[in-house]
Design a protein that fits this description.
Structural class: alpha/beta
Protein name: Glycosyltransferase involved in cell wall bisynthesis
Shape: elongated
InterPro entries: Glyco_trans_1 (IPR001296), Glyco_trans_4-like_N (IPR028098)
Number of strands: 13
Order of helices and strands: EHEHEHEHEHEHHEEHEHEHEHEHEHHH
Strand order of the largest sheet: 3-2-1-4-5-6-7
GO molecular function, one term: glycosyltransferase activity
Pfam family, one: Glyco_transf_4
CATH class of the largest domain: Alpha Beta
Number of helices: 15
Radius of gyration: 21 Å
Largest sheet: 7 strands, parallel
Keywords: Transferase
Helix content: 40-55%
CATH architecture of the largest domain: 3-Layer(aba) Sandwich
Length: about 350
């Protein structure tokens, strides 16, 4: 059956990699003459992507009533699905997978769920609720090869679920730097400041660099619930001149122009958008072995994967890149070459090809 109409359900429309990927995908599907609607489960005030989706979808963007309990939201979603009569309903956020599945029971449409992080960690942190959010729907799209392997190791998912990989893409034009010759003043990291991102490791690293009297500067871009906690840790370690938190900033390219490298410290990930975007910018990358990082970064060739995290090895690689401008430039060129195959060009067709493997 040729897909003509899709409804996406999404948890929120904040300034995250998930929302960015859905926005790219929705735009390209519309260009491919697919009728797309989107239903947001929890819309927070000042959600970054709300206006973008509203301008793109107009009346095909639905916002569920925040005062409703979960069961009433399921019923509201069901009404929208019956009204719009899609071929496929796709949950793009793991925590609404089961709710999306329930809303389609008895209706004549296919339903697909998503997993965009580590399967093992998602189940460990969320318990039975997370388990059922992966189990239902039976068809699951994962955005990382690591998560797919984790699911396939578990007998129940191997026997009960149909799992397909659909990786992230990146807008090469948006994240390409126009001038690679600007003086590099600092390293950068980008991401929501929360436990999984392990920004505390950044503090460990800069304490280590200070021990050897290396006077360097780092900028972290991103807000999050642990912002004040990490800011206090920076102050407690007297690192205010070395590690600077600037919160959310939409002008990441301006900041990246003067960056010598990207540092990434996450404990777990799906497919890390920030690594892909840094590759577009021609930045060398030092990262932990989180999610699909090792599928993008090959040691020595286009960056370094530190596995397991070791602050001494991280510092060693930082110092090596800091002192070696020609190596940074070589790695940067290699990253820009490698990332070309992940451009958002043909994103919609790649997505439709992935879901067609479910025999839809």
């Amino acid at each position: 059956m040729k897909t003509k109409k899709i409804i996406f359900t999404v948890g929120q429309l904040g300034n995250g990699g998930l929302e960015r990927q859905l926005y790219y995908l929705t735009k390209d599907l519309i260009l491919n003459k697919i009728d797309v609607s989107c239903v947001c489960w929890n819309l927070e005030e000042d959600s970054f992507y709300f206006e973008k989706f509203k301008n793109l979808l107009k009346d095909d963007l639905y916002i569920l009533d925040q005062s409703q309990k979960s069961l009433k939201k399921v019923l509201s979603l069901r009404k929208i699905i019956k009204k719009t009569n899609p071929d496929i309903v796709i949950s793009f956020t793991s925590f609404v997978n089961a709710a999306t599945f329930l809303s389609t029971l008895g209706l004549r449409c296919d339903v697909i769920g998503s997993l965009r992080t580590s399967a093992d960690r998602y189940i460990k942190d969320g318990g039975l609720k997370s388990f059922f959010n992966i189990l239902f729907p039976r068809k699951i799209l994962v955005n990382s090869r690591v998560a797919k392997k984790e699911l396939e190791k578990k007998l129940i998912f191997r026997c009960f679920s149909k799992i397909q990989f659909y990786g992230n893409s990146v807008d090469l034009k948006k994240f390409s730097l126009t001038d690679q010759n600007i003086f590099k003043e600092y390293s950068i990291s980008v991401g929501n400041i929360r436990e999984a991102k392990r920004i505390d490791r950044l503090i460990l690293l800069f304490n280590k660099l200070r021990e050897i009297n290396l006077e360097v500067k780092h900028i972290h871009v991103g807000g999050g619930k642990d912002f004040e906690k990490i800011k206090q840790q920076i102050s407690n370690n007297n690192l205010e001149k070395h590690v600077i938190l600037i919160g959310q900033n939409s002008n990441i390219l301006k900041i990246a122009e003067k960056a010598s490298m990207l540092l990434h410290f996450s404990e777990y990930e799906g497919s890390p958008n920030v690594i892909m975007e840094a590759m577009c910018m021609g930045l060398p990358i030092i990262t932990t072995n989180c999610g699909d990082a090792k599928y993008f970064i090959e040691n020595e060739k286009n960056g370094f994967v530190i596995d397991p995290f070791d602050v001494n090895i991280f510092a060693e690689k930082y110092i090596f890149l800091h002192n070696n401008k020609s190596k940074r430039e070589q790695i940067g060129r290699e990253n820009m070459r490698l990332i070309k195959s992940f451009d958002i060009d043909q994103l919609g067709n790649k997505f439709l090809d992935s879901i067609s493997k479910f025999n839809i």
